[in-house]
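Many introductory courses stop at the sequence. We go one step further.
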Amino acid sequence: MWPRGLAKEDVKIDLWLKEIAPSNELRKWFGHESEKWSEFKTRYFEELNRNSILVERLMNEVNERPVIFLYSSKEERFNNAVALKEYIEGRQ
Protein backbone atom coordinates (compact mmCIF):
# COMPACT_ATOMS: atom_id res chain seq x y z
CA MET A 1 0.00 0.00 0.00
CA TRP A 2 1.18 3.49 -0.77
CA PRO A 3 1.97 5.62 2.32
CA ARG A 4 -0.79 7.99 3.37
CA GLY A 5 -0.24 11.65 2.67
CA LEU A 6 2.34 11.15 -0.09
CA ALA A 7 1.37 11.86 -3.67
CA LYS A 8 3.23 9.54 -6.03
CA GLU A 9 3.98 12.41 -8.38
CA ASP A 10 5.55 14.45 -5.54
CA VAL A 11 7.90 11.72 -4.31
CA LYS A 12 11.00 10.70 -6.21
CA ILE A 13 11.26 6.96 -5.76
CA ASP A 14 13.88 4.91 -7.56
CA LEU A 15 12.31 1.56 -6.77
CA TRP A 16 9.08 0.41 -5.16
CA LEU A 17 8.93 -3.32 -4.46
CA LYS A 18 5.29 -3.44 -3.45
CA GLU A 19 5.25 -7.24 -3.88
CA ILE A 20 7.62 -7.59 -0.92
CA ALA A 21 4.94 -6.30 1.45
CA PRO A 22 3.01 -8.76 3.61
CA SER A 23 0.18 -10.59 1.92
CA ASN A 24 -3.26 -9.01 2.22
CA GLU A 25 -4.34 -11.93 4.39
CA LEU A 26 -1.45 -11.46 6.81
CA ARG A 27 -1.84 -7.71 6.90
CA LYS A 28 -5.56 -7.95 7.67
CA TRP A 29 -4.99 -10.65 10.31
CA PHE A 30 -2.38 -8.52 12.07
CA GLY A 31 -4.37 -5.28 12.07
CA HIS A 32 -1.46 -3.53 13.85
CA GLU A 33 -2.39 -5.20 17.12
CA SER A 34 0.79 -5.09 19.19
CA GLU A 35 0.04 -8.39 20.94
CA LYS A 36 0.25 -10.11 17.51
CA TRP A 37 3.60 -8.48 16.63
CA SER A 38 5.85 -11.48 17.29
CA GLU A 39 3.60 -13.88 15.36
CA PHE A 40 3.21 -11.33 12.57
CA LYS A 41 6.97 -11.13 12.14
CA THR A 42 7.28 -14.92 12.13
CA ARG A 43 4.63 -15.24 9.42
CA TYR A 44 5.97 -12.30 7.41
CA PHE A 45 9.52 -13.65 7.55
CA GLU A 46 8.19 -16.97 6.23
CA GLU A 47 6.58 -15.11 3.34
CA LEU A 48 9.86 -13.31 2.68
CA ASN A 49 11.78 -16.59 2.75
CA ARG A 50 9.49 -17.83 -0.04
CA ASN A 51 10.11 -14.66 -2.06
CA SER A 52 13.86 -14.96 -2.49
CA ILE A 53 14.08 -13.10 -5.82
CA LEU A 54 12.63 -9.88 -4.39
CA VAL A 55 14.57 -10.25 -1.16
CA GLU A 56 17.82 -10.59 -3.10
CA ARG A 57 16.92 -7.55 -5.18
CA LEU A 58 16.31 -5.56 -2.00
CA MET A 59 19.53 -6.87 -0.46
CA ASN A 60 21.43 -5.63 -3.52
CA GLU A 61 19.88 -2.20 -3.12
CA VAL A 62 20.66 -2.08 0.60
CA ASN A 63 24.28 -3.05 -0.08
CA GLU A 64 24.69 -0.39 -2.78
CA ARG A 65 23.06 2.70 -1.25
CA PRO A 66 20.88 4.05 1.55
CA VAL A 67 17.35 2.66 1.47
CA ILE A 68 14.21 4.17 2.98
CA PHE A 69 11.40 1.85 4.01
CA LEU A 70 8.00 3.52 3.63
CA TYR A 71 4.82 2.32 5.29
CA SER A 72 1.18 3.35 5.27
CA SER A 73 0.34 2.63 8.90
CA LYS A 74 -0.09 5.31 11.53
CA GLU A 75 1.62 2.86 13.91
CA GLU A 76 5.35 3.65 14.01
CA ARG A 77 6.63 0.67 16.03
CA PHE A 78 4.57 -2.25 14.77
CA ASN A 79 4.44 -2.11 10.99
CA ASN A 80 5.75 -4.04 8.02
CA ALA A 81 8.60 -1.59 7.34
CA VAL A 82 10.00 -2.16 10.83
CA ALA A 83 9.67 -5.92 10.38
CA LEU A 84 11.26 -5.82 6.91
CA LYS A 85 14.19 -3.76 8.21
CA GLU A 86 14.72 -6.32 10.99
CA TYR A 87 14.59 -9.16 8.46
CA ILE A 88 17.11 -7.48 6.13
CA GLU A 89 19.47 -6.60 9.00
CA GLY A 90 19.34 -10.22 10.12
CA ARG A 91 20.57 -11.35 6.71
CA GLN A 92 23.57 -9.03 6.52
